[in-house]
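Input/output pair, single chain:
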Amino acid sequence: MKKIILIGNVACGKTTLCQKLNGLELRYKKTQALEVTQQTIDTPGEYLEHRSFLQALIVTSVEADWAVFVLDPTQERYMFSPGQASSFPIPVAGVISKADLATEAQLRQAKDLLELAGAHPIFTVSSFTGQGIQALADFLAEEAT
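Output:
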């Protein structure tokens, strides 16, 4: 299974996705520091939101096979820069989270924004309904690249 680092702003769904992928009970928990659960590195949203912490994400990513940019399509602010995936020494996938709460227009915009950031492939998921989780899990189960 690929080891991943989840990257996204505060409340975008990183920790809930981590819990779902690792078969844990879904419960709200504010991530305060880097946390490793099996093959998943969960990061605080502040690491993306405060550019002075961005280096910590890049350095930590060397411990993973893939970085995963997580984007909540219902949020109005966008924290990833165009081409930001090229800052990382590993491939970058994208996850559009909270698909059950978003409109079709929000989902399309989120996909466009993740593509602009350089994420590929991109998965659309809902940790609560399970939508798209199996496709993401199958991708992660493939041999690490």
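The CA atoms of residues 49 and 79 lie 7 Å apart. The chain is about 30% helix and 15% strand.
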